[in-house]
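Q: Sequence in, structure out?
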Amino acid sequence: MNMKNFALILMSLLMVCCTKDDEVKAATVQEAGKTLVVYYSYTGNCQQIVESLTAQIEADVMRIEPADKTQKYEANGYAIGTALLNAIKAAPNDAASYPAIDPVSITDLSQYQNIIIVTPLWWSQMAAIMQTYLFNYGAQMEGKHVALIVSSHSSGISGVVADAERLVKNVTWMGDALWINASNHSNRASLIQNWLPTLNFAEKQTTMNKMYITIDGQAQAVTLVDNQATKTLVEKLQQAPVTVTLNSSGGFEIWGALGFSLPTSNEQINAQPGDVILYNGSNICIFYGSNSWSYTRLGKIDGLSESQLRTFLKAGESNITVTLSLSSGTTAINGVRSAAAEAGTYYSLNGQRVDNPSKGIYIRNGKKVIL
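A: Exactly. Output:
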């Protein structure tokens, strides 16, 4: 074999190896669940990072914008930006401490399994504008897989990582945060290419991430977190809906026995209105107020205000019949009606109240009946 032929064979082998490696990297991301990239960009660096990222993965993209676009955060020796960060540090749990942002284009994150946050660093902290977004929407990321890319000039990113962990809780961090700074920004595409295969992307949704709570014929969706308790509960509900009797307690919840046990992963939780919680492994608690205790989180009721939750959950009452299911199709009734609605009311299969039902199939007390 002459040297020319040997060189051609060697080149072919290298091309095959590289191609297979690229295919593996691509498959790692393409087989993942639906992904959202959310970013804020002040100087344009983060926008360029997002463009390089989305050239390599399939994802929806949402940009966060401040409500006041006239601010020059670096003016007067960084006085404006520093003041915004100091306000957040002084009262991190107060919504009024965070600068206003424009309404976002995606308000429901339930369709995404993976979220990648791309943010600038401001003086060793996460940019205040991105902190506002995560303060407002971080709770919707619970149970999801989350990754972080940070852009800075030269400062380390540990403070930004700490801000992210404070604002986004009960998530699976997909891997180490990616730091892109002034010295390597021009190599961002290759940095991202090497970073992506290290991430633990959530797989495509193969199990239910929703269940429904039905009370007096009215159904509300619950977005479930991803843990062993919810997986076991879904397996139970796939066999048949579960009906329990709950009672009001403490002025903040309705609760009662499930009639079976679920795996626990207890932690100290500050439960908030809408939270659905497992207590002591065999009791379900649905909150219309707040309480702190050692619980296992199950999920959160979607889209109801605190006053609507109190009405829907019949706050203050006893012997409340609650049905848990994986489908709202048995009622097709959305929204909250008066708690004084009669238990014997009939509804059509598309959720319309029927005052004088004739022969046919109807919904009564959350169940199908035939007249």
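Residues 246 and 361 are 28 Å apart (CA to CA).
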